[in-house]
Amino acid sequence: MMMFLWSVGAFIVTLGILVTFHEFGHFWVARRCGVKVLTFSVGFGRPLWQRQAADGTLYQIGMIPLGGYVRMLDSRVDEVPAELAAQSFNAKSVKQRAAIIAAGPIANFILAILVLWLMFLIGVPSVRPVIGQIAPDSIAAQAGIHTPAEIIAVNQTATPDWQQVNLNFAAALGHETVTVTTRDEQQRVRDYQLDIRNWRLDNNQQPTFITLGLYPFQPEISHQVSWVAENSPAAAAGIQQNDKILVFNGTPVTDWPQTRELIMQSPGQDVVVTVLRDQQQVELMVTLGSRVVDDKLVGFLGVEPTVAPYPEAYRFTQQYGIVEGLVKGAERTWELMVLSVRMLGKLITGTVSISNLSGPVSIAEGAGTTASFGLVYFLGFLALISVNLGIINLVPLPILDGGHLAFLAVEGVRGKPVSERIQEICYRIGGILIFALMAIAISNDVLRLSQ
Max Cα separation, the chain? Predict the structure, then answer.
């Protein structure tokens, strides 16, 4: 329940920041173009807070935190006095109206740059993309990639961390091949060609490199107990910290994955566990607990294994100064913008399945999870969503900013606006398409939750 409330709170904060910046973009440029702004609202529905400014603009926060709007004086919908006619939105030139409309998405891109700038100023704890394992019969295995090795580039683009590896592979989706450059422990650099003609992303939200069969290096996990949960089957049986599990119900064990699998296969059973304690073997009778995981009843013991420390050579912090951090923020924003456009194109062509669309539930989960990890991770998530919001709003669908810009482009070419009847028809079609996409995204969220 607490995680749910945390996710909802993080979602509201995320959406509030994104909407405020987006609408402020429209608001700021509209004021600079001499348009009278009637209402600046963050959220819809009954106002929770309102304030009337001296210039007549009503600022408010709505009850429903799922968007916002800037209402401008417009003679097409308002009765405009003669003395205010010049301040009407539709009285402005095509270029001015286009600037006002485009300012919302541009504000989202500026927000992403500033957020990433702050993230790089604080410093992002990262790990080098060292491959630990290759999945058998995977695309990576077929390419013959050797391990251990560090991925230093994908398609000649440097990859300092796993996030960059993920982004570079996503950009290559739909190509016939992708080049992976690695450096092994002897500092030998080698290129591998991965055949990705039949590679598709499914809807399980796994990173791209996992779907290709590349698994990050993981420190060794031993079958020595590092922690025993209170009131657990292990505690009741007398298992102690630093005990090393040697035999599980007659089966010798050599590593933690094997031990865990044996535990999960024995829900509720009485088993004999032999541990090494102070150089002596001790046999203990344990009644395992049981719980449901992925609709399957599995056993549990209530212990955690000892994990070797992560090699310091693989750790580093991405941190930059004021100027360099701003440059890095702008570069990362541009990279995310390009990737978002490409992914939209791949979604349209079917290269990326529509099952990858995410709705508000996935965004709330992402916001809650990244916020729980720390500020820098939440900032990275916020920048990603801000870029996506800006790109989506520029799609030339009626109702979206891109649709309004498309109408203005036609008006600029024809010398007169598109008829209200045609605009109304287009708005209805656009509304249906947006509603359909939202329905698919929400249904994808529900399916992910049920898995």
Answer: 97
